[in-house]
Amino acid sequence: MLLGGAATMQAHAQGASRGAAQGTSGSQLAVQVNDDRITLSVAKVPQVYLYGPIDADAAQRVGALIQSRKIPPNSDIYLNSPGGDLAAGIALGRLFRAGNMTTHLGSPRRTATQPIFPKSSQCVDACAYAYAGGLFRWAPTGSDRFGAQPVAGNASAATATAYLKDMGVDPQVFGNASSSEVTWLDAEQMRKDGLANNGRLTPTAVYGPANGGTSLTLTQLARDGEHRLILQCHPDGLSITANYAIGADRARQMVARATHSYFEINDKPAAEDNHANISTVGSSVVFTQSIPLAQLSQLPSAYLMAAWLADRGGSVRYGFWMEMDPVRNELRSFSSGCQQMAKQTSTTKG
Fold this sequence. Notes:
By secondary structure, this protein is an alpha+beta fold. The protein has helices spanning 5-14, 37-43, 58-67, 86-98, 126-131, 154-166, 187-192, 248-257, 328-349; strands at residues 19-20, 30-34, 47-51, 76-80, 102-105, 122-124, 136-137, 145-148, 183-185, 204-210, 213-222, 225-234, 237-245, 260-265, 268-269, 277-281, 284-291, 304-310, 317-323. InterPro entries: ClpP/crotonase-like_dom_sf.
């Protein structure tokens, strides 16, 4: 049901509608909150659609819904707007980031009072700045369009630039400040420029000595939980441990169903005997596997590492993958240290 203003709040309070909208006059940003049982069972979080022009009071209305937890933290935000008030767009983005929310492009669901919505969506101008506030930002799909536009005027441009930097987005992605033209970005370009991360933050690396050898810990925060790879080099070999944090119940279910678990490097088996041991520790599935030091040569140039487990049928696999380019320097340092250790071990045995 689509309702406006105070009627929406009343419908939520009475439980008469779980899909409601504010600001439906056509000159304001409208809000549709979908938190019905089916949505939550599939998406795990509410799906919130913001559509129409971003008016000056849009952030205040959305903020009130967040404050009342009608829009709870970690919600999925779907945007479809031609833009509007820049300050309001930036304020919306900061609300999204504070709530660890995920931004997408998308049109609201059809309802009895609003049976027709365009299938394609666009997000441009102030909407693009709101989108940048998502902790996780999904690139557009299908015919959806994303338009980045620089801000003119010294004060406004400085504010917009500072905001994008705070959100971890390179301001240059939004174009040259000397031009006011919209740059329409496709999914590949947004992913390449870091504007879209498709549910995965850039991995971080910690390299150093550990237990008589060297250790490299790679951590990535993703939409479905935390992913971690721990590589440890010892005189007698290399071990890889993966932590796939997905919740205690789901972790136990996956391990119970699994028939095969393994690591991959560059989409290929990490070892000739590619079988990892798996267990549940807390809320994580934990993979462990030993790899001969002789296979270290593939690590410095690796572009992808992954940990997978297959279910009983073998047709579906679960797990995660991690790009190595963001942690290339630490990976090379670790590989160099391991190779040096392998030489010393060989000399000692000789």
